Amino acid sequence: MPRYFFHIHDGDPVLDDVGLDLPDIFAAQTTAIELSGEILKHDVMDPLLRHICWQVQVSDSPELGGRSLFVLQFSVAR
């Protein structure tokens, strides 16, 4: 089973150095969406949304510079 790493970029990168073993890219996409939902739930509590733009990058490496498999991007328009 491949291992996927879920890095958060919101001004400062938060690297996932553990990752998850998942059966395929579709499971990784579902996991990235669920993770994003959890992040949004917590940031909604902050009325100013600290970070206007952020992303979840799914990679094949625990370090920056690995192969990016896909990116979920989020932004707040005011």
Report what the structure shows.
The protein is of the alpha+beta class. The chain has one domain. It has one helix spanning 25-44; strands at residues 3-9, 13-14, 20-21, 53-59, 68-75. Strands 1, 2, 3, 4 and 5 form a five-stranded antiparallel β-sheet that branches. The termini are far apart.
Write the layout of secondary structure elements.
Blueprint lengths: L2 E7 L3 E2 L5 E2 L3 H20 L8 E7 L8 E8 L3
Antiparallel strand pairs: 1-2, 1-3, 1-4, 4-5
Q: What overall form do the CA principal axes indicate?
A: globular
Beta-strand segment tally: 5
SSE ordering: EEEHEE
How much helix is in the residues? Answer: 25-40%
Strand content: 25-35%
Return the average pLDDT rounded to an integer.
88
**How many structural units, i.e. domains?**
1
* Rg, Cα atoms, Å: 13 Å
Low-confidence stretches: none
| Biggest sheet details | 5 strands, antiparallel
> What gap, in angstroms, lies between the N and C termini?
42 Å
What is the helix tally? 1
- Give me the secondary-structure category: alpha+beta
